[in-house]
Amino acid sequence: MAEQPLVGIIMGSNSDLAVMEACGEELERLGVPFDMVVASAHRSPERVHEWASSAESRGIRVIIAAAGKAAHLGGMVAAYTPLPVITVPMKTSDLGGLDSLLSMVQMPTGVPVACVAINGAKNAAILATQILGTSIPQYRAAIVAYKREMAEG
Ligand code: RP5
């Protein structure tokens, strides 16, 4: 039987997948089960609503939301769930991803999202694992080992 996903990854478009694959690869490396869906805040809002509002009851503990341009996906997801939301601003052709970044970090008071660097898919996976590690020793140990590997070069 497949392991229960603990991290839910949502992205606004299939065009985000090339970048976000690195997020899934890092979660796999850290041993974190996840699921991944494409749903857009403006093109398929009902799907986003359904996915975000049911995430906690499906066993998800942390959400990663990736989007580009006027990137309201993370904020919309955060509105529908008590789970922590980490956003990944996608690099864009017109404004280089600054548009996505500002859309995410400037969430109004009361509905925060965390935000990693532009195209920071791998860091989102690491941060999600660190959050899991505050309550699940296996993931804390995975992060400790990862940091040790980095230090040893
Ligand atoms: C956002 O608009 C997506 O997250 C994507 O980063 C950007 C462009 O989407 P496409 O036009 O490539 O589908 O919704």
Tell me what the structure shows.
The chain starts with 6 loop residues before the first strand and ends with a helix. A five-stranded parallel β-sheet has the order 2-1-3-4-5, sandwiched between helices. Helix 3 (73-79) links the parallel strand 3 and strand 4 (85-89). The longest helix has 16 residues, at 137-152. It contains six helices and five strands, in the order βαβαβαβαβαα. The chain has helices at residues 17-30, 45-54, 73-79, 98-105, 121-133, 137-152; strands at residues 7-11, 34-38, 62-67, 85-89, 114-115. Bound molecules: 5-O-phosphono-beta-D-ribofuranose.
How is this fold's topology laid out?
Elements: E1 7-11, H1 17-30, E2 34-38, H2 45-54, E3 62-67, H3 73-79, E4 85-89, H4 98-105, E5 114-115, H5 121-133, H6 137-152
Parallel strand pairs: 1-2, 1-3, 3-4, 4-5
Helix pairs in contact: 1-5, 2-3, 5-6
This protein binds 5-O-phosphono-beta-D-ribofuranose.
